[in-house]
Design brief:
65% of the residues lie in helices and 4% in strands. By secondary structure, it is mainly alpha-helical.
């Protein structure tokens, strides 16, 4: 008994420690990137500042693209820790931690033996690590959705209504995160599972009226309140950002139908080889079971527990197929499909230990992990100068590290058995995350974040212009520069291309070499003075420049 308790404490401590490293370490080592991170963070800041938790606003204008869950959680983080970019990422990091913990305890309760591996594999795959560190709505949907699906299967396996509470409660949370996609995906997954088992009564037994009331009590207050406060909410959110986003290329995210195949392969790194093997094996078994049962026979004679891989396959594949049909595709859309893949991988490795040791599978897994390590070590060079090969010494160090990782995994697992597979894979992953955040973090920030640009603008205003009240504009930059400056300077950023040229003197952030175009646009009576690049000239991948623009007729500084 003491031995079991010691193992339990050690497992929980390991899961917690790994999750803290992978999800929380260096959360603010580089600034908010892309357009969504700073935009969502700014909305949360305004929600807190205005004390209005119904209508999300961006620089004072209603922003109704997404429900309010992320904004609420980020606002709570800002209230507790202050307005920081790392605080904006805490909602995703904490949900990722909860996901790993729930996977561990669910599997320990229903699939003992695979529980530890399921938690570690879930924590250490690329998609979960990446989206755990993003100030976005994707993890706000994926984690509660996983809780809901695991709760539903726990009810299916035990028949205890208590587990249906998880289904309805967490689907409500998912609906507050991203809207009707949460209950929609769940309904189709349950329907397909019932069809595969030829048990349509399963669908009706899932309808639990106390659960419906719980779902309604959680979801309806905000949806009703935001509709009453914003008459266009239904049109903007449901029709434009759900229906039109799926059926048209309104938001210019068109990708080929097969787009999510490479996304899935990259998302499951470094476990891709075993995850795909587990998915194919479970899918084949599901197909054989379905073919072997009579067309009018409910598959109730089988052991219920045998249906778990079947359920995971349906849960994993349906979101991928569904969003492949969408005219608008982004990588985060299939994040709800990742937890069933990681759980299925752990279940596969636990049940098929001899299969996992096959030369081909282990070789491919070790090689893929080694290549991942090489890529991670070359990130600083690829980011700063993607058009040229990295220096020879950097290439040699990266390749030598990759060879070491390959040998570490392949030969140690071959010698010591499949029990070493988890550890030999997780150690390189942990090192890679540490390297990206500790060593490559500043470079990633320079390449993709506006934090340093905003700090330079504030320095220019304070040291050279002796004021901090000039408007700031951008010209010929990516839109993430506009939104990033908007968050870090806490003001709306004008954009020349939209005709938003301030008449008063202002700061302009533009791409290098645009002086002539700016002068033509402004006219001869306005002065343009350069304050140079916000980055060292040897490290300016964004190719940005900070300028002072006079008001009409003003003398140059």
């Amino acid at each position: 008994m003491k031995s079991r308790r010691r193992i339990y404490i050690l497992e929980v401590a390991t899961v917690a420690a790994l999750s803290l490293l992978l999800f929380f370490y260096g959360l603010g080592n580089f600034g908010l990137v892309g357009a969504d991170e700073p935009r969502y963070a700014q909305i949360a800041r305004e929600m807190l500042r205005n004390n209005d938790f119904v209508t999300p606003t961006l620089h004072g204008v209603a922003w109704l693209e997404k429900p309010a869950l992320y904004y609420w959680r980020a606002a709570a983080s800002f209230r507790t820790f202050g307005v920081h970019d790392w605080a904006a990422r805490l909602p995703s990091a904490t949900f990722a931690l909860a996901l790993v913990v729930i996977v561990y305890f669910h599997m320990r309760r229903f699939r003992p033996g695979a529980h530890f591996g399921a938690a570690l594999i879930t924590a250490s795959n690329a998609a979960i690590i990446g989206f755990a560190r993003g100030a976005s709505t994707d993890m706000q949907l994926a984690a509660p959705f996983a809780f809901a699906m695991l709760g539903w299967y726990a009810w299916f396996e035990t028949g205890k209504k208590f587990w249906l509470f998880d289904l309805y409660f967490f689907l409500a949370v998912g609906t507050l995160a991203k809207g009707p996609v949460a209950p929609g995906l769940a309904c189709f997954i349950v329907l397909i599972f019932a069809a595969a088992r030829r048990d349509w009564k399963l669908v009706w037994r899932t309808v639990w009226w106390p659960g419906v009331l719980i779902y309604s009590a959680i979801v309806l207050p905000w949806y009703v309140a935001v509709q009453l406060a914003n008459k266009d909410f239904f049109k903007i959110f449901f029709l434009r950002h759900n229906l039109e986003r799926f059926t048209t290329d309104l938001f210019q995210h068109r990708q080929p139908f097969w787009y999510y195949l490479p996304v899935l392969i990259l998302s499951l790194l470094p476990w891709t080889v075993y995850a795909i093997s587990a998915l194919i094996s479970a899918a084949r078994q599901t197909w054989r079971d379905w073919r072997s049962s009579a067309p009018d026979q409910v598959r109730a004679s089988e052991q219920v527990g045998d249906s778990f891989p079947e359920f995971l396959v349906i849960w994993a594949l349906f979101p991928i197929v569904f969003f492949s049909l969408s005219q608008s595709k982004l990588p985060g859309y299939i994040l709800p499909a990742i937890p069933p893949c990681t759980i299925l991988t752990a279940d596969y490795l636990h049940k098929n230990k001899r299969e996992a040791m096959r030369f081909g599978l282990l070789f491919a897994h070790a090689l893929l992990t080694a290549l991942l390590m090489v890529s991670v070590l070359l990130v600083p060079h690829l980011v700063l100068d993607p058009k040229t090969l990295p220096p020879a010494n950097a290439m040699a160090y990266a390749v030598a590290s990759g060879v070491t990782v390959f040998c570490f995994i392949f030969f140690l697992v071959r010698r010591r058995g499949e029990r070493m597979l988890l550890w030999t894979t997780i150690v390189p992953v942990a090192f890679g995350v540490f390297f990206l955040l500790h060593d490559a973090g500043p470079i990633l920030g320079v390449a993709y974040s506006s934090r340093q640009v905003a700090a330079y603008v504030e320095k220019v205003e304070h040291d050279d212009l002796h004021t901090q009240f000039r408007p700031v504009a951008v010209f010929d930059t990516r839109r993430d520069v506009e939104y990033g400056l908007g968050f870090y300077l806490d003001e709306r950023i004008a954009r020349y291309e939209r005709g938003e040229v301030p008449l008063v003197e202002h700061i302009l952030v533009a791409r290098e070499g645009e002086h002539d175009a700016i002068s033509r646009l402004l006219g001869s009576d306005r002065k343009v003075v350069s304050f140079g690049s916000p980055f060292p000239q040897s490290m300016n991948p964004q190719r940005l420049e900070v300028l002072w623009i006079s008001s009409s007729g003003s003398p140059a500084r």
